[in-house]
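User: What would this chain look like folded?
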Amino acid sequence: MLSEKRKLNTIIKLGVDLNEVKDIDVLLERILHEARILVNADAGSLYIKEGDALKFSYTQNETMQKRLLPGKKLIYSTFSLPINNKTISGYVANTGEAVNIPDAYKIRSGLPYSFNKSYDDLSGYRTQSMLTFPLKTNRGDTIGVLQLINAKGLSGKIVPFSKKDEPLVLHFANMAAVAIERAMMTRTMILRTIKMAELRDPKETGAHVNRVAAYAVALYESWAEKRGLGKEVLDKNRDILRMAAMLHDVGKVAIPDAILKKPGRLDDAEREVMKQHTIMGARLFSDRYSEFDEASASVALNHHEKWDGTGYPGHINPYDGKANAGYENSDGSPRPKKGDEIPVFGRIVAIADVFDALSSRRVYKERWDEARVLDELKASAGTHFDPEMVETFIANLDTMHSIHDRYPEQ
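Assistant: Here's the prediction, encoded as structure tokens.
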């Protein structure tokens, strides 16, 4: 457990660290993790306000996690709660007051809220102590709720949350709210860009790009952990990959409607024009001020490369359209990239994009059943896709299913 001084120093440092996380989903997971460490909580949940409701956005549970196989993530469903005084989280969001409950099963009579133990009944988990705080911005607006569950004492026994921790968690929650608000603005700007693309290409929906990005991060996490990448590298790359993957097809805004919206098959000449969306997407990030710009350009440029070297656009400088020196074919055209020449993020998004496209209904095709999709991925391992990543993707199907349910088509 952390001393009071270390807790304060940790909060100060976290205030800086949280502002470096750009993606809202990665940020929410980080906030919940750090809050749990701060007060030695076994579990916790994060709710984000959406209109007049709270959306259950993230949960963590160390006890439940230990029951899973190594490398597996806790699967959970998202849902919404009305903002009223009937539930603990709803009460905190509605009143702006923090609530510290020693035992959720022994809430004293007369209080407006109660504890729903249906999850405990289903999972075999016992919720006891709870510390629930509003996430308030500098303007005093409540944008969510942070709920910490089951404080652990020195012996590991579940104990009530200390009253001394309440001011520290409140300070942390206020910093977290500011970071969340900023990350939400970033996500909103990205989704507005996606909506602009959607006006041109109805396939590029917000749900589609959110699923592709979430699949990509889940695949990267599992692949990176198997390779022993450090937590610092993993956390940084998850953040930039999540945002870059959402913009993988943004270059389609430069493709003429006659080709982009053609209902039938494209002819060879039209197909060559369509391929330019990879180059156009990379050009949008030509002013590279951050690692996000670099990652976005790389994903846009490389997500149609193939493992066997039959993809596009190949070893090309997207800013002048010429082949990179030493990578020209005999006719001067760029040689396609193959194998490990394809950047990791490009290989990851290629699988995530195809999986979602095949698993979703489109105006030109019906949704494939999962067995057929998986057969296609397996058949394409070693030709279209990195075989190691296909294996990793399939090993994490339970996570992919939960992502699909989290971002349904509207």
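The beta strands are 41-50, 53-61, 80-82, 99-101, 130-136, 142-152, 158-159, 316-317, 322-323. If you want, I can go into more detail on any region.
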